[in-house]
Amino acid sequence: MADPFADRAALDANPFADPSVQGALAGSRTFEADDDTPYGHSYASTPQPKGAYETDDPYGTSGGTSGSGANARAEELRRREQELERREAELANRAENIRKHGRNNWPFFFPLIFHDIDAEIPPDSQQIMHHLYWLWLVLAGTLVVNVVACVFLITRGSDGIKDIITSCVYLPVISVLSFLLWYRPVYNGFMKEHSIFYYLYFVFCGFHLVFSLYLFLGIPSTGSCGLLNTIYSFTDESKRIVAGILGCIVTVGFAVQGLGNLWYYRQIWQHNKEQGHTFAQAKSEFAAHGAKAYFTRGSQV
C-alpha cells in the first residue's frame, strides 16, 4: 500500500514541486520571453521627428513677425522717453523762469501779471485766444507808429501839435485800458467760464470797436494819422511823403485790429450762448465778487 504522506513529504522538501506552482512559473517565464516590459510595450525613449508645429523656441519668440513687434515696442518706449524728457525740460525751464522773475511773467521787460495761453486756456479756445493776443499787439504797435507819424504832421502848424499831444496820450491809455478792459476779461472768460468775464468783454470791446473806427478815419487834430490825415499828407502842398507812408501803416493797422476784433466779437458772443451764460448770472457774480477780482489771475472765481 502506497504511503499517503509521501507527496506531503516531497512538498515539504521542495515547495516548488507542486504542479500548480510549476504551471504558474512556466507561464511567467513565457510572459517574460515574449516582452521585457509589462503590457507588451517598451518604455525606452526613442527620438521622434519634430512635427510641423514644433520649434526649438519653447516661447515662440523667434521669427520675423515677433522680431518686428519687439522693434515696434522698443521704438514706442524710446518715443515715450523722449516725450518725457521734453516735458521735464519744459517744466524745468518754467520753474527756472519763475525762480528768476517770480510768478508774473508779462510783460517780459517788467512782469506785472502771469500770462500763458497754452498753460491756462483750454485747448479748444487756445487758437482764438492767440489771435486776440496778436490783435492786441497789432493795436499797441499801431499806436506807436501813430505817434511817429503825427510828429511828421507838425509842419501843418497848430493842428500838427494837437495830433502829437493827443497821440502821445493815446499810446499808454488805449494800450493799457484795452488790455485790462476787454483782453484780460475774455482771457479769464475762456480760462474760468464765468458769465461776468464775457459781459465785461462785450461792453468794453464794443466801445473799443467804435473807437477803432474813429481812429481809422484819422480826422485832423484828433491824434490819429489815419485815413483822412494820410490823404491830406499826400495831397497837401507841402507833400509830407514820410507822414503819408507812416499814415498808410497806421490806417492799415487800425483797420486790421478793428475788423479782427469785430470778427471774434461775433464768435465769442456765440460761444457765450452755447455755454449757457446769462446776464443774470453775470450780475450775481458781480454782486458777490466785484469786478476787480476778474482782472487778475489770482481770483478763485
UniProtKB/TrEMBL annotation:
Chief location category: membrane
Pfam families per the UniProt record, alphabetical: SCAMP
Topology with respect to the bilayer: Multi-pass membrane protein
GO annotation terms (biological process): protein transport
Spans traversing the lipid bilayer: 133-158, 164-184, 196-221, 241-265
Biased composition (Basic and acidic residues): 1-10
GO cellular component labels: recycling endosome membrane; trans-Golgi network membrane
Keywords: Membrane, Transmembrane, Transmembrane helix
Entry's localization field: Membrane
Disordered as annotated region, ranges: 1-81
Record protein name field: Scamp-domain-containing protein
Upper classification of the organism: Eukaryota, Fungi, Dikarya, Basidiomycota, Ustilaginomycotina
